[in-house]
């Protein structure tokens, strides 16, 4: 063997170092742990002078098995960002004092009960302002900054406490409610010692919802329902509280919900969200309406706008509101005199929300996401030229992620349906892929082409895309963003029309030559779980399905859910009066046709879609020899809200579709692989 020169060794090093560097910088497929660890920014609130933006960052704390939210601050001029609050307990809902000297927020950091705190935006320790007997449920600064109003429930009467001592704890259904009311306190006093607050509204005639101060601080407008039961949402009316004597006057009373009142800058009028007298309002447009602060005729403001309008601000330029526009989300300006509406944000595909204005209305902060970015906190001045203050997207810089695009196809009845298609990063049009359909809830939800959207923590799209699957998120009939007529297309047509839309989307991609029809799966949560259940019992096009918190029998659902009006709104009657429509739209009607291996996931304490729906579907499938697994997540209601259980949801779905779509060994769902330490 000949002896090598030093130059030969140096050459080897020169060749190896770039390779090592490339390996260190190589992108990788995100893992379940990566998805769990993602931080998210939201809830921006711009300071009165427009110089700073408070916002929240939520991150995973596996030690506590919780998602913890803290308040951050961004300086608009410099772009500097820093964390303002600290600790194991969440701090949320930041609100600037009118002079910009304080940021108030709610937290259960003391005593495990939500209270109001303030912190100096320059930093330092937070100061507790309230010691309310019950948890604080929202608050607002008065315009002069001297007073804060908050909502909280009245304490349980002594008789109820005594009853518990003698007879244990029980509840008479739809007889016993807690009622929220408005309380106020002086900020100067609270800075010295926490305040219980002065109760301003009382009694059991209504429970207070959203509220706002009049500009002069002499009145508070609020909406209220007859009680806190979700079935009473349609009873929401508008009231005005006089601060001088605590007198309350109802100024809007009509069928359907009227809520979230906001004052005009001169304090003479109030705008609010309204169903405009429509008692069957679930699938109808929510409009902005106007009424005199003293009551009187109600004027509709957004009849000419075919989508739900969400109030943002009332400035000298007009009323600003946000709304979906298909798979985009925009800000609009309304002239309350002429009722003319302009779109403020651009381009057409813009996805924005949580808009907030400086005092003079010249600067705006908001959150925005896109197919290539996570949700970021942004600002703009004058004409719309947004600038990001955060860089949450940096978390994903090393990930191999699929591309997002919006596609459209025609359903069985000719209706045009849109969806978000996620393609593998190395997509090739000449190759056939597996296809996984993910169906959103609602039904008035909507899927947007945003990077790593929230459903990634139930259904990890990008992990599947990296394995060679297309992901189709279907904005089926009934989805928000497409106008009231589209939203009502599943009236007395639930499941049936929804299935047309999903199946037509599958056929569209198969005909394009992109999909292997033998490897198609479907999944969804809530309404998406219901549609998945409908497909598992009525179609043979799917290799595997996952049903998350899904309805299997509308009659069972109607008699058990906490929102019975929902069913009547969409099906037109209760099951005793019209059993045929309940039969037509229920997955269990078609159970004899079921062949598709089905995973059922459900929260143990779900009241929105009570768990008997899951057991009914499971037993029906088992009776017919269809492969089925049912997993009950202990201690949860309709959603899975803690990271360790979210890890389980993802792992169970990955294992299920891994076996049936990708050919992995059959999983033992009782023993998932332990996460890497």
Secondary structure layout:
Blueprint (H helix, E strand, L loop, with lengths): L5 H20 L6 H6 L2 E7 L5 E10 L4 E10 L5 E3 L7 E6 L6 E5 L7 E5 L7 E2 L7 E6 L5 E7 L4 H10 L12 E7 H6 L5 E2 L7 E7 L5 E7 L11 E6 L5 E5 L5 E6 L5 E6 L12 E6 L6 E2 L9 E6 L2 E8 L2 E7 L6 E3 L7 E7 L5 E8 L2 E9 L5 E2 L14 E8 L5 E8 L9 E7 L21 H6 L2 E7 L8 H4 L8 H16 L3 E11 L1 H12 L5 E5 L5 H7 L3 H8 L7 H7 L12 E6 L8 H12 L4 E6 L9 H18 L17
Parallel strand pairs: 31-32, 31-33, 33-34, 34-35, 35-36
Antiparallel strand pairs: 1-2, 2-3, 3-4, 5-6, 6-7, 7-8, 9-10, 10-11, 11-12, 13-14, 14-15, 15-16, 17-18, 18-19, 19-20, 21-22, 22-23, 23-24, 25-26, 26-27, 27-28, 29-30, 30-32
Describe the model.
It is a single chain. With 677 residues, the chain is of the alpha+beta class. Helices cover 19% and strands 33% of the residues. It has 13 helices and 36 strands. Strand 22 (318-325) and strand 23 (328-334) form a beta hairpin. It is globular.
């Amino acid at each position: 063997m000949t002896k090598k020169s030093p130059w030969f060794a140096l050459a080897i090093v020169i060749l190896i170092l770039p390779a090592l560097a490339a390996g260190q910088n190589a992108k990788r497929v995100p893992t379940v742990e990566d998805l769990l660890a993602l931080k998210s920014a939201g809830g921006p609130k711009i300071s009165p002078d427009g110089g700073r933006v408070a916002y929240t960052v939520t991150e995973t704390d596996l030690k506590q098995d919780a998602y913890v939210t803290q308040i951050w601050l961004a300086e608009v001029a410099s772009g500097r960002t820093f964390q303002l609050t600290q600790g194991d307990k969440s701090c949320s809902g930041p609100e600037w004092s009118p002079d910009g000297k304080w940021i108030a927020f709610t937290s259960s950091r003391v005593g495990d009960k939500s209270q109001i705190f303030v912190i100096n935006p320059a930093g330092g320790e937070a100061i507790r302002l309230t010691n309310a007997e019950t948890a604080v449920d929202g608050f607002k600064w008065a315009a002069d900054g001297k007073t804060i109003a908050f909502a909280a429930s009245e304490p349980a009467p002594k008789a109820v406490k005594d009853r518990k001592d003698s007879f244990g704890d029980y509840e008479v259904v739809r007889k016993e409610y807690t009622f929220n009311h408005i309380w106020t306190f002086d900020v100067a006093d609270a800075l010295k010692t926490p305040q219980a607050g002065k109760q301003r509204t009382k009694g059991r005639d209504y429970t207070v919802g959203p509220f706002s101060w009049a500009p002069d601080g002499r009145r508070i407008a609020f909406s209220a329902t007859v009680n806190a039961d979700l079935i009473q949402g349609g009873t929401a009316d508008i009231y005005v509280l006089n601060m001088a004597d605590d007198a309350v006057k109802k100024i809007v009373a009509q069928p359907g919900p009227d809520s979230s009142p906001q004052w005009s800058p001169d304090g003479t009028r109030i705008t609010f969200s309204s169903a405009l007298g429509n008692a069957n309002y679930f699938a109808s447009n929510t409009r902005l309406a106007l009424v005199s602060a003293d009551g009187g005729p109600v004027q509709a403001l957004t009849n000419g706008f075919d989508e739900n309008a969400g109030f943002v601000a009332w400035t000298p330029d007009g009323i600003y509101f946000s709304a979906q526009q298909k798979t985009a989300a925009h800000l609009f300006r309304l002239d309350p005199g002429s009722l003319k509406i302009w779109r403020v944000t651009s381009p057409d595909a813009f996805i924005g929300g949580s808009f907030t204005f400086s005092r003079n209305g010249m600067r705006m902060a908001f959150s925005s996401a896109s197919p290539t970015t996570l949700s970021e906190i942004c600002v703009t001045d004058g004409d719309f030229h947004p600038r990001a203050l955060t860089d949450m997207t940096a978390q994903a810089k090393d990930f191999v992620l699929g591309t997002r695009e919006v596609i459209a196809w025609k359903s069985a009845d000719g209706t045009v349906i849109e969806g978000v298609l996620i393609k593998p990063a190395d997509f090739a049009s000449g190759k056939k892929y597996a296809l996984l359909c993910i169906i959103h809830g609602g039904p008035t939800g909507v899927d947007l082409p945003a990077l790593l959207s929230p459903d990634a923590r139930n259904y990890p799209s990008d992990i599947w895309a990296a394995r060679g699957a297309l992901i189709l998120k279907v904005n089926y009939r009934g989805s928000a963003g497409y106008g009231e007529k589209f939203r009502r297309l599943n009236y007395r047509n639930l499941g049936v029309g929804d299935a047309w839309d999903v199946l037509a989307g599958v056929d569209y991609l198969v005909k394009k030559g992109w999909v292997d029809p033998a490897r198609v799966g479907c999944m969804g949560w809530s309404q998406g779980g219901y549609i998945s259940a409908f497909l598992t019992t009525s179609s043979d096009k799917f290799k595997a399905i996952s049903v998350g918190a899904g309805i299997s029998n509308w009659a069972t659902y109607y008699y058990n859910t906490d929102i019975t009006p929902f069913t009547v709104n969409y099906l037109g009657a209760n099951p005793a009066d019209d059993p045929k429509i309940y039969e037509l739209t229920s997955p269990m009607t078609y159970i004899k046709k079921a062949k598709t291996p089905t995973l059922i996931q459900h929260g143990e304490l779900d009241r929105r879609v009570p768990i008997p729906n899951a057991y009914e579907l499971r037993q029906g499938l088992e009776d017919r020899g269809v492969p089925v697994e049912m997993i009950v997540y202990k201690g949860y209601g309709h959603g899975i809200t803690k990271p360790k259980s979210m890890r389980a949801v993802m792992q169970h779905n990955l294992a299920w579709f891994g076996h049936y779509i990708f050919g992995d060994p059959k999983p033992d769902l009782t023993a998932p692989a332990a996460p890497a330490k």
